[in-house]
Amino acid sequence: MNRTAMLRRLEESPQTDFLIIGGGATGLGIAVDAESRGFQSVLLEAEDFAKGTSSRSTKLVHGGVRYLEQGDIPLVLEALKERGILHQNAPHIVHHLSFIVPRYKWWEGPFFGIGLKVYDALAGRLNLGSSKMLSREETLQRIPNVEPENLMGGVEYFDGQFDDARLAITLAQTATDLGGCLLNYAQVTALTKKDGLVNGVEFIDRLTQRTLRVEARVVINATGIFADQIRKLDDPQAIPSVQPSQGVHLVFSRDFLPSESAIMVPHTDDGRVLFVIPWHNRVVVGTTDTAMSEPQIEPRALDEEVEFILRNAARYLAKCPTRKDVLSIFAGQRPLVRPPGKSGGATKSISRNHEVFVSDSGLLTVVGGKWTTYRKMAEDALNHALQLSGHGHSPCVTEHLHLHGWRNARASKQEELLRVYGTDVFELEALYEENSQWREPLHPKLPYPKAVIPWAVRREMAFTVEDVLARRTRALILDAIAAAEVAPMVAEIMRVELGLSTAWATNQISIFQALAREYSLS
């Protein structure tokens, strides 16, 4: 991806079929869908790709066991189908993961056993593995740190796991491979209209501070938790459509789960499930579900959310995690569809379905949903957009579209953290020949070679230290302190690659290290 080339192209031809606002899962999915159907698209993201909600998930591609318990069968069916499709289209990023539900009461065996067999059946031919009952001994062997007192056994089932930010970058690469024009750090400041109908946008290129315009047949608002802000550019009286719900995760060393299986905690204080998940040689524990009054691009965990996770995780772990064990803490806000006439209050009961609606002036907005169903959300949004544009029907082809770097992961010998680059890994490793130091580890506590830094700048449109350490790699959420320690080295390599000043590097170090402190409880 080359931002300079795409910006030049946009300046020379500032018209497109579909203008997409928002570079998270939904917006990127729409760009891929549009280009794969043969239409032109331009995507504008005010920050970096997946800067918000889309890089802060529980790292699961799942049908939603909790939604099955709530009786939302249509949502589970859709999510299970999309889980299987994503596993086929991006096997270098998505893989199956074993989950074990510990049983401490006799009735939990038939209750979870039958429920998870239904889960298997709903997945059909796209099922990732069959659930089964485990004895006490098998459960202790599979998850050694599980609380042994009164343990009767467990139930194993399978779901998907992924790296959310890496999948976002992969979608951006796929869209550009197909001819799309995508810009990060391009903030939409106004919607343009003709005869009362939206016909484009005005935006600021934040890297050059220039103001530009783009005309489009349809403007699509895919900004997640910020959807209402864009809607108010169209209509200042627009009724709020999004209820932000905050989810917090704590990251620990693998000592707290020395297993390749995850734990699904079925009962917590507020009735939600809690996950204890092995990921990138760490353990991710979450999540919470807290209604928030305002959307935030960089949300902060509340003390009560941290205590909630620690308290509930301790009930199922023999070695109990404490605040001092936290390597990193991250929070994200879900863009839940706000029920009519409601705001605030409990959000765990609000549906995770998505909705697409069009304003009187023709602004198309898509809200709700979750990462697992991003492709279906994109398909629905673009089908609506085609009706608005007058293009007529054009079939969606993304169900069988391999994403950028597609590679049969079973044939890959690379470590997990390089496998997410797919077929690009060979070009990445070729950078070792350009500079032998780039083969060295980024940090003793971070499992990346230094080569990922120039790669992120040259090929993945990374422009800040945060871009590299938070999203092109996941250093910030694997170990916040280690990430802060490597910030000077990352800034220097980026400075040389981008041809910028030492003052730029100094400022970037200061900004990132301040951010990293917010990701640490130390």
Structure in a nutshell:
By secondary structure, this protein is α+β, with helices and mostly antiparallel strands. The chain is 36% helix and 24% strand. The protein has helices at residues 3-12, 25-36, 65-69, 73-89, 108-123, 136-142, 164-177, 227-234, 303-314, 374-389, 416-419, 425-434, 452-459, 465-472, 475-478, 480-498, 502-518, and strands spanning 15-21, 41-44, 60-61, 95-103, 132-135, 153-161, 181-183, 186-194, 197-205, 210-221, 242-253, 262-265, 274-279, 282-286, 290-291, 328-337, 354-358, 364-368, 441-443, 446-449.
Question: What are the main properties of this structure?
Answer:
522 residues, alpha+beta, FAD/NAD(P)-binding domain, D-Amino Acid Oxidase, Chain A, domain 2, Helicase, Ruva Protein, domain 3, 3 domains, ten-stranded mixed β-sheet, eight-stranded mixed β-sheet, 17 helices
Structure in words:
The structure is a single chain. Strands 3, 4, 5, 6, 11, 12, 13, 14, 15 and 16 form a ten-stranded mixed β-sheet that branches. It is globular, with a radius of gyration of 23 Å. The protein has three domains: 3-53 and 166-241 and 341-400, FAD/NAD(P)-binding domain; 93-161 and 243-337, D-Amino Acid Oxidase, Chain A, domain 2, CATH 3.30.9.10; 409-518, Alpha-glycerophosphate oxidase, cap domain (Helicase, Ruva Protein, domain 3), CATH 1.10.8. Helix content is 36%, strand content 24%. It has helices at 3-12, 25-36, 65-69, 73-89, 108-123, 136-142, 164-177, 227-234, 303-314, 374-389, 416-419, 425-434, 452-459, 465-472, 475-478, 480-498, 502-518, and strands spanning 15-21, 41-44, 60-61, 95-103, 132-135, 153-161, 181-183, 186-194, 197-205, 210-221, 242-253, 262-265, 274-279, 282-286, 290-291, 328-337, 354-358, 364-368, 441-443, 446-449. The chain has 522 residues and is an alpha+beta fold. The relative contact order is 0.14. The model is unreliable at 344-350 (pLDDT under 50).
